[in-house]
Amino acid sequence: MLDPGPGEGVPGLAANPHADALPETQFGHNEFLPTDSAGNPLAPQYHRVLLLSLDVAPSNEAARAVERSMRTLEAAFEWAPDGLLHMLAWGTDYFERIGELERAPIERPEVLSRTDDPDLLSFDAALVLESDTPSHLTAVENALFGDRDELNGEPVEVRLGDAFSVSARRTGFMGEGLPREHAHAEGIPTGALSAEDPMFTGFFSGRKGTQASEDRVAIRDGPFAGGTTMHLSHLTEDLDRWWNDFDVPDRVAHMFASDVSPEDVTDFAGTVPFDDAVREHAQEEGRVGHHEKVARAREDGEPVVLRRDFNTVDGGQAGVHFLALQRDLADFRKTRKAMNGWYLRDEHPAITDRKNNGLLAFITVQSRANFYVPPRKARSFPLFAGEN
Description:
Helix content: 10-25%
Number of helices: 11
Strand content: 15-25%
Shape: globular
Distance between the termini: 14 Å
Order of helices and strands: EHEHEEHEEEHHEHHHHHEEEEEHE
Number of strands: 14
């Protein structure tokens, strides 16, 4: 057993034998993803987030158990969509438990709009799992929190369930045709979705030019360097009017901008053009698009949030689990403030907090929670400095 240096791993545990084949960050996914013809990375199709409560006191022994359990995943599956991508994130309950919440790069969630009254949640940790093979996600949960004794041929000697219990889970999917397979959920009219639609709104939202880079969301220095912050919110969608009362040009205008046509969308490749004319569109058209509002939350012309969101039918309602990575949670709040578009109500009487205001008439935020995602080498009990 080799003790690493400070910040280099878990005391009493040798270096990760899989490290050379893995990115240093837990959120280093993009270079391992397939891309479409425009170079946009395509997210894994199936997603599961296990929200965890810590059942043991923080200790070096517990840290070794957690790290060994995570290494089991890396031994069992290739770091790829047809294998398994994963992140272990730490929540506000954990940092409060060790007396470090004020020092942590996250804080408890807050209400961010006048149109929602979400549950403001706090957890010790979250395990984020992604794969193109849905059975992998079930196998991992059964191995780490159940009684499965092997995982893709690898023995399971230590379980995350020895330290955590699962308080809640979020499940979902992303990809062409998958929303239609789940169109039985409340909030989606019968026959609305096609085999090409990747999201319940019918649009593709993962263009690389509308996303922050992984480097942009990484914390640069200090004790949390190499990590990032993670926000997780559950949005339900009520899209009956979206599909039944709006034609294609109306849906395009609400998603993008009033001067964008359906033909324009067909030609979009790796980005969405942004003219920063949202006030003019509000004054002239009495409605504004989601993209043109959110695109204003940029620095040096670049987005500040990396979305890893996915569709869901949790609770029987169509929705989105909005998983966002950003260097600072202030970047997420800035983006949501832009999305609210409150300042636009003065530009035209037809625009309200919800009506004619992008997607806000069709979504409701049910819950919010915040997490810190450490770099891989420091993913077990960050900031904890205890005794064996």
